[in-house]
Design a protein that fits this description.
heterodimer, A: alpha+beta, Alpha-Beta Plaits, four-stranded antiparallel beta sheet, 4 helices, 29% helix, 40% strand, elongated, B: alpha/beta, Rossmann fold, 3 domains, 21 helices, globular
Chain lengths: 163, 582
């Protein structure tokens, strides 16, 4: 099962490598990884998605917690949460395709953020499966380059992950 | 306030931390630190002959005393040589602080002379690590390193020190913190009271209980609580390889070690139990055999300071996270209350039947109830060497070992009555551990008997330390169980590879160990006859101030039994001899 694990991490050199190293060392997979400082510059917020059964996820969260640099973590997929990912896609857009791609972008509430004589660069945000659907709709033939930020997530309601 | 250089700060911080010994080896990147040690430091430094030995010596010291061992090495090869010893300490949760030199800050990343990414290389095998980025932060980092290494589940901590930050000309205020707090690191201080009550109820309802205790009881100083618990309930106890001595080896309730080379009665009691109380143990693959067949009828209570150790390989029915000593204290209190209300528990009749069953197992195949090895061969048996060692030292020696058959024989046949007396590399299984570890132990306890049980394979992996022993007069006793083979490799080749001894034979290449010991200013005794063994050993241990190398020639074809049948065996499936199995 796919899980979204969100980690508050000391914003120290080497902290990220400890997290990433843990995954390779113990044979866990990282599907996506996203990290940046929070409003408190001494803390980073790291979001990763991984796939595993309950036992594996329990091991992952326990081992993450064991890292001295990890302040707190939560498995967002355990409760109601919001998941977002940002994607930039460069597509070939010529002739009749230009209008078609524009329509498709509108349907997915994306934005064309750069326009060239034969290319569009489109920004789409949403949950990972929405981005997958967009790529499917546009079709492999038109896609030149895809950049995805990796998943970010936050719990719904009052629940927060903080010190 | 005093102004000190980075090098002086390190020397002073080690004094302020109460460090008794530094085990190390100088080199370019740590010369400023060594100069500060030379000028000012009250902490004695032991110059080893190889950095791996520095880590093992610090490790042996830590295992015997419970205090963190301290290592100081230079950058590059000094640091990489220390890696095996750091991994050894990590696997067995031993507190250690490793100070490694680093090239000057501005050279980091430029492939400078003797540069290596020590933090990167050591990352998977340390509890935590620090790279110092300014001189002023040295005292606090060292305090944090000692705190992290020795609290919670202990482990090694690396502090990487760029050379320019220890420069004698740059002086800063020195203030050694009394306490440090880390917001991201708070080891559990008590067990959950509800879980402890559940555990107590389960224990009192047990009809076939076993206490399975591991290295955590030794490291967590909970031996007294374990004894009280086991004795108040009259429950049988088995110890892991790492836990030997936590429960007295000569006590009736002790079933011996469990696991791959565990006692018949211990493995059977585990397999047939209805309640297992696991304390500071981690259900290692060398204990459980096939996890799917592990103790099918048992409910499992698991006490450990590390949540990640719980339900890792075997699911715990009642997990309790906390320091083993405080959890056992709380458990004892709860049990006392519950038993006052229900004096009939635990079921004495059921326990009596259980003990009769255990005694039957013990009588039929227990290693201590009769000789379980062939006494008719002309050879000295390795088991006899350990039995003699136990007798000659009154079961009170510190015994370090290397890795292989001799290690298992020592674990099986030396009856450890006290914790911290059995010093071995259980998790990583590091050959070359025994002699340097013995040095660390002997320095900490100069009046105690310290024996290093080894084999001719392992001893040669750190034999250069005979020179360190000569320099500092460290009179350990070395018992080399000489069989001319890499014994454990040979045993597996006998059992699984039809006796094809691929690279496990030395032929005539081994040194004359007696002459070798003499070359290092020590003495040696060769023993080949059983009739000479006890007298020779008695004499060796009477020579208190000498390192004596006992080269004891033992049966080259002996195997360690019992041995779990694998793959697909359960706890109770064992080879009992070369021809007999359960």
């Amino acid at each position: 099962m796919r899980r979204i694990i969100s980690v508050l991490l000391e914003n120290e050199p080497g902290a990220l490598s400890r997290v990433v190293g843990l995954f390779s060392q113990r044979g866990y997979n990282i599907e996506t990884l996203n990290v940046a400082p929070t409003e408190d510059p001494t803390l980073s917020r790291l979001t990763l998605t991984t796939i595993g059964d309950d036992h594996k996820i329990e091991q992952i969260t326990k081992h993450l917690n064991r890292l001295v640099d990890v302040v707190k973590l939560v498995d967002l997929s355990e409760g109601a949460h919001i998941e977002r990912e940002l994607m930039l896609v460069k597509v070939r857009a010529t002739g009749a395709q230009r209008a078609e791609i524009k329509r498709c972008t509108d349907i997915f509430r994306g934005q064309i953020v750069d326009v060239g004589p034969s290319v569009y660069t489109i920004q789409v945000t949403g949950a990972a499966d929405k981005l997958d659907s967009f790529l499917e709709a546009v079709g492999d033939a038109a896609i030149m380059e895809v950049v995805r930020s990796g998943v970010s997530g936050i719990a719904r309601g009052e629940k927060i992950l903080s010190l | 306030m005093e102004l000190l250089s980075g090098g002086e700060m390190i020397a002073r911080a080690l004094e302020d931390e109460g460090v008794e010994f530094i085990f190390g080896y100088p080199g370019g990147a740590v010369l400023h630190i060594y100069d500060a040690l030379f000028n000012k430091c009250k902490v004695p430094h032991i110059l080893v002959r190889h950095e791996q030995a520095a880590t093992h010596a610090a490790d042996g010291y830590a295992r015997a005393t419970g205090k963190p061992g301290v290592v100081l090495v230079t950058s590059g090869p000094g640091a990489t040589n220390a890696i095996t010893g750091i991994a050894t300490a990590y696997m067995d949760s031993i507190p250690m602080v490793v100070l490694s030199g680093q090239v000057m800050s501005h050279l980091i990343g430029e492939d400078a002379f003797q540069e290596t990414d020590m933090l990167g290389i050591s990352r998977p095998i340390v509890k935590h690590s620090f790279q110092v980025t300014s001189t002023a932060e040295i005292p606090e980092i060292i305090k944090k390193a000692f705190y992290i290494a020795s609290s919670g589940r202990p482990g090694p901590v690396v502090v990487d020190l760029p050379k320019d930050l220890t420069n004698p000309h740059d002086k800063y205020e020195y203030n050694y913190p009394k306490k440090v707090k880390l917001r991201s690191y708070t080891p559990a201080s008590r067990g959950h009271s509800g879980q402890i009550k559940k555990a107590a109820s389960l224990l009192l309802a047990a009809k076939r209980p076993v206490i399975y205790s591991g290295g955590g009881v030794v490291q967590g100083n909970a031996s007294a609580q374990l004894r009280e618990l086991a004795q108040s309930l009259n429950f049988p106890v088995t110890n892991t390889l790492m836990g030997l001595g936590a429960y007295p080896g000569s006590d009736r309730q002790f079933l011996g070690m469990l696991g791959m080379h565990g006692f018949y009665e211990a493995n059977n009691a585990m397999h047939h139990s209805d309640v297992i109380l696991a304390v500071g143990a981690r259900f290692d693959d060398r204990v459980t055999n096939t996890t799917g067949k592990f103790c099918p009828g048992a409910k499992i209570i698991h006490i450990d300071i590390d949540p990640a150790a719980i339900s890792k390989t075997i699911n715990a029915d009642v997990p309790i996270v906390g320091p083993v000593d405080s959890v056992l204290n709380d458990l004892l209190d709860v049990l006392k209350e519950m038993r006052a209300e229900q004096p009939a528990l635990p079921d004495q009749k059921a326990l009596k039947v259980w003990w009769e069953q255990i005694d039957e197992w013990r009588d039929s195949h227990g290693l201590w109830t009769a000789p379980r090895y062939d006494t008719t061969t002309p050879y000295i048996k390795p088991q006899q060497v350990i039995e003699t060692l136990c007798k000659v030292t009154g079961g009170k020696a510190f015994v370090t070992s290397d890795v292989g058959q001799h290690q298992m024989f020592a674990a099986q046949y030396y009856k450890f009555d006290e914790p911290r007396r059995w010093i071995n590399s259980g998790g990583l299984g590091t050959m070359g551990f025994g002699l340097p570890a013995a040095m660390g132990v002997k320095l900490a306890f100069p009046d105690a008997d310290v024996a290093c049980v080894t084999g001719e394979g392992s001893i040669q992996m750190n034999i250069q330390e005979l020179s360190t022993c000569a320099q500092y007069n460290i009179p350990v006793k070395i018992l080399n169980l000489y069989n001319g083979y890499l014994g454990m490799v040979k045993q597996w080749q006998d059992m699984q590879y039809e006796g094809r001894y691929s690279q496990s034979v030395y032929e005539d290449s081994l040194p004359d160990f007696i002459k070798l010991a003499e070359a290092y200013h020590h003495s040696g005794i060769k023993v080949t006859q059983l009739s000479d063994l006890e007298d020779a050993m008695t004499e060796v241990f009477a020579r208190k101030n000498e390192l004596v190398f006992m080269d004891i020639h033992v049966d080259p074809h002996e195997h360690v039994y019992p041995m779990h049948i694998a793959p697909n065996g359960s706890m109770r499936d064992m080879w009992l001899s070369k021809t007999e199995r359960t």
